[in-house]
Amino acid sequence: QALLYLRNMKPGEKLVIYHSNIGKAAIGTAKVLSVDASDPKNPCVRIKPVKRFKQEKPLEAIRKAAVFKDSLLFRQFRLSVVPLTDAQYDWLTA
Question: Which of 25, 32, 78, 88 has the fewest CB atoms found within 10 Å of its own CB?
Answer without folding.
Answer: 78
